[in-house]
TrEMBL record:
Keywords: Cell membrane, Membrane, Transmembrane, Transmembrane helix. The chain crosses the membrane at residues 23-44, 64-90, 102-120, 145-165, 205-229, 241-264, 284-304, 324-343, 355-374, 394-416. InterPro entries: NrfD-like (IPR005614). GO terms for cellular component: plasma membrane. This is Polysulfide reductase NrfD. It is a multi-pass membrane protein. The keyword Iron-sulfur does not apply. Signal peptide: none annotated. Belongs to the NrfD family. PANTHER family: POLYSULPHIDE REDUCTASE NRFD, PTHR43044.
């Protein structure tokens, strides 16, 4: 354990330093985003036919594919991120306070990427307007998908408010050490601020955290999204009460994995071993193992009920799912990671930050793979089996893969930009760590004197 005491200068280091590595990462992320924008421009020019999406039938392809699979995946990452941050505040999990704001920023980035996928999958951006104006009284107000968009928008506003309120305290106290060129932004962030509001904001943030924890299973990845999929008659394998808890567990798996990778990147780049400690990675890894175990249990429940107790069409869909190589690979990756987490829990010597990062990467890859298959499998084995003679096939196009590169780059650019604007670790976290450090020193003094 590091004996170095955290200071305000530590959390200001990303803002006040520019390195060659930063510019390299920024350039790589920008290049990834531009590559996708070029591909998207080609899609806009030629139509959705270049992806194979929207071509449901004997010609091959499906109406949904990587775009919607990645959309669900990013929403899961976002929802899991804000749940983790809310749990830190609501449940007193002070151990993870140094990564709470990173989790909040992950939510903003994940929701932005998810919203971008809706725009891309519409085919033409103008349809976001024309599909609403003139048709609201006929279709839009009766569409279950409107609930999806509404909930995601509400969560974005909730998360942004949550983040903005916690930033006011930090920006006000660290203002003298923040760059003057961003003064207009800091003035907006601290508009009307006074130290008397700190207790009020603490209560507001607590209630926002409570709302997040309550809404998560009811309206977000445990509610609206799985309900929407259960309403689609062509997807017999998606029905069942277990879908909500399974969606929530996979969201938390993805979020914890992403936060571990982001936390490690900042720790290594800015020498934050004494802020984002090994103890945080161990704890996050154990939570990852817990939610991974839940997810696999829910998968088992779905398979057993579908194959042995479900109607014929559901049984056929579930059997096709468990026999699909993509599903087998995804579950093997997730189960293998769970085995490692369990073993390193028994033998702590097997823990290392690099192994934890590898485990996080494997989980993210496995959950993304599962989500893509999730939205595709129902179209490959529809209830009415109307394409049995010439079944369609689907594999993501280059443009779709570039969309994943582009949205990942978009989230990376968000972190790279925010890290130069505001502290990505809360001042409260530094104050808490400093208090723990002083307490540890007092506890060890008698031993030193002896």
């Amino acid at each position: 354990m590091s004996t170095k005491e955290p200071t305000e200068a530590d959390i200001l280091r990303p803002i006040n330093t520019l390195t060659t590595k930063y510019f390299i990462m920024y350039g790589a992320a920008a290049l990834g985003l531009v590559a996708f924008l070029v591909a998207w421009a080609y899609q806009l020019q030629q139509g959705m036919a270049v992806t194979g999406l929207g071509d449901w039938g004997s010609g091959g392809g499906v109406t949904w594919g990587l775009y919607i699979g990645a959309f669900i995946w990013w929403v899961g990452v976002a929802h899991g991120g804000i749940i983790l941050s809310a749990a830190v505040r609501l449940l007193g999990m002070d151990r993870y306070m140094p990564v709470a704001r990173l989790a909040e920023m992950t939510t903003i980035g994940g929701l932005s990427a998810a919203g971008f996928y809706i725009l891309v999958h519409m085919g033409r951006p103008d349809r976001m307007v024309t599909s609403v104006i003139g048709h609201f009284h006929i279709t839009v107000n009766n569409s279950p998908l409107v609930w999806d968009v509404t909930v995601i928008t509400a969560y974005f506003v909730l998360s942004a408010t949550y983040l903005g309120l916690t930033l006011r305290y930090d920006v006000n106290r660290l203002r003298d050490d923040l760059p003057d060129k961003f003064e207009p932004i800091y003035k907006i962030l601290t508009l009307g601020y006074s130290e008397k509001e700190d207790k009020v904001i603490d209560r507001m943030v607590w209630w926002l955290a409570a709302a997040v924890i309550i809404m998560a299973p009811l309206l977000l990845h445990g509610g609206v999204i799985p309900w929407l999929f259960a309403l689609l008659p062509a997807m017999p394998g998606w029905t069942g009460a277990i879908q909500g808890p399974m969606f929530l567990s996979i969201a938390l798996m993805s979020a914890i994995s992403g936060i571990m990778i982001i936390s490690y990147a900042f720790r290594r780049a800015y020498d934050w071993d004494h802020i984002i400690t090994d103890d945080i990675f161990r704890g996050l890894l154990l939570w990852l193992g817990f939610f991974t175990l839940l997810f696999l249990w829910f998968q088992l429940q779905t398979i057993i009920n579908g194959v042995f107790l479900g109607p014929t069409n559901q049984a056929v869909a579930i059997e096709a799912k468990i026999g699909h190589p993509i599903y087998q690979i995804a579950m093997t990756m997730i189960f293998g990671t769970l085995v490692y987490i369990f073993v390193q829990g028994i033998r702590p010597a097997l823990f290392s930050k690099k192994r934890a990062l590898i485990a996080s990467g494997v989980i993210l890859t496995g959950t993304l793979t599962e989500k893509i298959l999730f939205v595709v499998e129902g179209f490959l084995h529809p209830t009415f089996d109307i394409y049995a003679a010439t079944p369609g096939v689907y594999f993501p196009s280059v443009i779709e893969w570039l969309s994943l590169v582009g949205t990942t780059a978009l989230v990376a650019l968000l972190f790279l930009n925010l890290s130069k604007l505001v502290p990505v670790v809360e001042l409260h976290a530094v104050e808490h760590l400093r208090g723990d450090h002083a307490h540890d020193n007092e506890a060890t003094e008698p031993e030193v004197e002896a």
